[in-house]
Amino acid sequence: MLSKLIIAPKKYYITTPIYYISDKMHLGHSYTTIAADIFARYYRMIGTDVFYLTGTDEHGLKIQQAAESKGITPKQLVDDLAQQTKDLWKLLDISYDAFIRTTDQKHEQLIQEIVQQMFDKGDIYLGDYEGWYCKGCESYFTEKEIKNGKCPIGHEVFKEKEKAYFFRLSKYQEWLLQYIEEHPDFLQPQSRKNEMLAFIKNGLEDLCISREAVSWGIKLPFDEKYTVYVWVDALFNYLSGLDYINTKEKYLKYWPPDLQLMGKEIFRFHTIYWPIFLKSVNLELPKIEFAHGWWTVEGQKMSKSFGNVIYPDEFIEKYNLDIYRYYLFREVSFGEDGSFSIKTVKERINNELVATLGNLFSRVLALAQKRGKTFSFFKDQLSERVNEKIIEIHKAYEQINLSKVLNEIFEICYLANKYVQENKPWELIENNPEKFDQIIYVLLETLRIIAVELSPIMTRKYKVMFEQLDLDPDDKNNYLLEFSNIMENKNVKKKDHIFKKVE
Ligand code: MSP
Q: Residue 138: what pLDDT?
């Protein structure tokens, strides 16, 4: 059953970055992955054909060296780490449709075809690469990475020159600026788009896309002495993840991506390299590239050396998954930087989840049960307001504003609480039972809509709400985003509090 209030797009292709797997995934990685999951779940719910892609970035020197030090092959190492990542996403209820690994055969084959195409077109040429070379690391470092003539781990470095392949980024500079200008929604949010524009206007240099010292990578098809630079390899996951190489079926259905989410530190790769590479091989560009901010912990950079890294599995064992998914998008406005703190986690649990949301449910359900009967359809002004909020929430999704989604859901809770205060149903139960029944119906249907709107975010607690509202979570009709007659004749039952206070 489709809502008449909102128009669902036909398809929605959403992606996260593919994460490096040399370390255990932490809060930061889970943030982007959960954000994409919320979008995917919302759009599926309103009837859109969604494809949600995530995965792992598995090539490069770091993996090569880590495997060597463990005495195993890089492939053995990445198989193990990729599985750990999948296990974590399962724990966090991530509903991805495909998981792409850059060591998948379909990916490696695609990359070789793509770079060959770029080469044949004349966008890749052989030139001289000059940089600081470290024998110990067998790799080049940039001017910035060098301190006092030493590499980041302290070996001496030498200026060296070698033959390497370059991609003609400079050729596309003007085209890219014009494209960004003509597609105002392409790069978001605006503040980060401005940074990118300034960077491009400063001038693009051709990009070295071959690596001689890295053997754990995809070979350049036209010169097998080299492997492909990891960013060329990584970005095209968004295409190989649709099985582009085997069958064009998913590509034809879902390309281009509707929303690509990432952290601000890799926005540059997605707003400069990625569109230019796509243009080079004549593929349509994504609709929106969105960069969110970075999380710190209690205001401090999250890092292993500070010992302050937040791991989602540890957090949810102590609290629970719904609180985690809720907190991340409630605490920080999506797009901005934010600080994680246990104090604010507890405040949000006690003041919002328990005092506002949980209380509203128990109050209304207790009242409803007092009559010992079911209720018939009724609508009034609150019903109208709830319908307006449904439209607002939909717009917030379109504007990539998850914090607004949650604000609007809470607005519905506040409206419902006010409605209870004003109508004083506990006084009506004796002297005007008919009016009482009407008010309770409006409230129950409002609770249903709150639960439905929360379902992409709180993937478990909403089911507890459904249970108390006598709604079957497996029945798609119950998810209608529109004030309706669904709550007619339901045997609602108040059970335990949905959220518990924390000390
Ligand atoms: N492999 C590349 C991405 C290639 S995409 C074609 C990469 N991987 S990564 O493992 O370093 O992951 C970076 C991403 O993790 C960020 O863009 C962001 O999505 C997430 N985050 C990692 N730390 C983060 C925070 N502290 N805060 C928020 N998100 C962060 O870069």
A: 64
Closest Cα to atom 22 of ligand 1: 28
DSSP class of residue 311 equals P
145, 220 contact by CB (below 8 A)? no
pLDDT tens readout for residues 464-494: 999 999 999 999 999 999 999 999 999 999 8
Phi-psi region of 461 (alpha: psi -120 to 50; beta: other; left: phi over 0): alpha
Q: Are 454 and 354 a contacting pair, CB within 8 Å?
A: no
CA 12 – CA 256 distance, rounded (Å): 9
| Type of residue numbered 43 | Y
Q: 15: which 2 tokens?
A: 């992606």
CB atoms < 10 A from the CB of 229, how many?
A: 24
DSSP output for 75-110: HHHHHHHHHHHHHHHHHTT---SEEEETTSHHHHHH
For 188-200, what is each residue's pLDDT tens digit? 999 999 999 999 9
- 454: burial class by Cβ within 10 Å (0-12, 13-18, 19+)? buried
Q: What is the mean pLDDT of the chain?
A: 95
Is the pLDDT assigned to residue 403 strictly greater than 70?
yes
Pocket of ligand 1 (CB under 6 A): 17-20, 28-29, 31-32, 57, 234-235, 237, 262-263, 265-266, 294-295, 302
Best CA proximity match to 44, nearest among 322, 488, 459:
459
Per-residue pLDDT tens over the stretch 121-160: 999 999 998 888 887 776 678 787 888 889 888 889 988 8
Neighbouring C-beta atoms of residue 252, cutoff 10 Å: 10
Tell me the CA–centroid distance for residue 262 and ligand 1, in Å: 7
